[in-house]
Amino acid sequence: MNITKNFNFVEGFAVRPNAFYTLTLIFIIYLLDYADRKVMSALFPFIQAEWGISDAQCGMLNGIVSLMIAVFVIPMSILVDRWSRKKMISLMVFVWSIATLLCAFADNYTQLLIFRALTGLGEAAYAPAAIALLSKIFPTKYRATYIGIYDAASPIGAGIGIMLGGYIGTVYGWQHAFGILAIPGLLFSFLFLFVNDYATIQTQVKTVRETIHSIVQTVISLCKIKVLWILYVAYGLCIGVSACILDWIPSFLHRVHGLNEKEAGLASGIIAVSVLIGAPSGGFFADRWSKRQKHAKMYVSAFSTLLSAVFLFCAVQSTTLTSTMIFLGLFGVCTVAFLAPVTSIIQEIVATNVRALAFGINVMIMNTMGAFAMPVLIGKISDRYDLQIALSLLPVVAVVAAVLFWRSRKMIR
Length: 413
Known about the structure:
Layout: H1 3-14, H2 17-51, H3 55-82, H4 85-103, H5 109-123, H6 126-137, H7 140-151, H8 153-171, H9 174-191, H10 208-223, H11 226-257, H12 261-290, H13 296-317, H14 321-335, H15 339-348, H16 355-384, H17 387-392, H18 394-408
Helix pairs in contact: 2-3, 2-5, 2-6, 2-7, 2-8, 2-9, 3-5, 3-16, 4-5, 4-6, 4-9, 6-16, 7-12, 7-15, 8-9, 8-12, 11-12, 11-16, 11-18, 12-13, 12-14, 13-14, 13-15, 13-18, 15-16
């Protein structure tokens, strides 16, 4: 088999117009993913007023989505690699859109919790499937740039979901917010069936036992790649820092700088805006620098993460609101710059037929270690000491992640 010829075919396919059409659909669907996921945050007051549920129960309505993603991402990612990227994406968008629609018809808390769990089930392997497809249709030298564009969809979607949720909930009622946001997903689940997908590499197994054995062996083979686990841990630490800031910075601005709840929420939006700059920029600079420096992707990840630690420390320790907001904005730019370069590296160091699984393991780790454990830990430290003291520990976590990125640079082949 002529490996070079096959690789050039992939490279050639990547620059065709249909590759950018696929990127556009993936971007919009990822935007809808986060809109459907985060609309709940804007609807808490309406649901609490109607059903009288607690803050802990409200938190579970969001948390159950991430929990389901963490639980099902691995088996779903295996299915992505062994079946079809476009068919799995289409199916997942359809499932989470139907689940979002069902939330509009929930009569009690238990029903709403179940429907939100189904939303997480539908979203479980979207990121691995999308990353695997993007990694195949775009060449290595541009891959981080386009993954960075993809990553920018999540904060846009979160912002749209929260804004629309608040408006629709006020004007029409909170149930209508779920119904209206579900409709675009159903449309795009149909459209995605017609994009180009790469051929699935078939495994030579005949029985269920052989299939399970093959899957286990594949997972074990990935676990033996030491640099993958260093990247997974560093990735999870960075996601944890960002999750803690998004969860706690409104309370920090309220308690430390005296803003009311509405003002604190609006001020926190600067982080989402800065993330829009940082996510694509990290991929763009990594790709450009890679032409001259083979470790450029890890350098960008390490330097940007280290800068985010410095800016976050300055933001937490600043005594004026203006300086705090400036440093938070700079933190927002730097803290997500690692996403595209590291995601690109993860895809490049594994075989084509396990790309979704490799990123699926990453999604599981970042949801459990980052999105769940760290915000809870910061909350407990804040309860015992002080929120400012708790947030002051986060720059240390970011420094650890930067060191891991730096260490991994010479391990990547």
